[in-house]
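re: ur question from yesterday

yeah so i grabbed the chain u mentioned. its 132 aa long if i counted rite. heres the sequnce exactly as i have it in my notes:
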Amino acid sequence: MTMSDPLADMFTRVRNAASARHDTVRIPLSKVKRSIAEVLRQEGFITEIGEVREGARAYLELRLRYGDDRRAVLSGIRRVSRPGLRVYVNKQEIPRVFGGLGVAIMSTSHGVMSGREAWRRKIGGEVLCYVW
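ran it thru and got these structure tokens back, copy pasting raw so excuse formatting
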């Protein structure tokens, strides 16, 4: 079975693992997914990124971050640009998620980064998702 949107699958796995209060979540490995996970780590939504190999398959293993009351730091994640409708923004149109409380993750000509970092560098790109 081929997957038409692997990033949406990643976001769904992370969202479901956080709502079920799992410590870790495994996602099939790709370079873009690793870059997105790195942005999530830098922004404090996950604590650790690991790589697991099972035979010929490789997986990213993400350790989710929880607060003192065992509530996930990541409360929501939403795919913005998708295969059927790509969403591109220039440097003036970079979105703010929940007034700055959330993060927009973007794919730019300089790699995958947060919306804040893209705004600092004054570059636009494709808005992959919103995380809050």
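noticed a couple things. Strands lie at 24-28, 46-54, 57-64, 77-79, 88-89, 103-108, 111-114, 125-131. also The radius of gyration is 15 Å.
anyway ttyl
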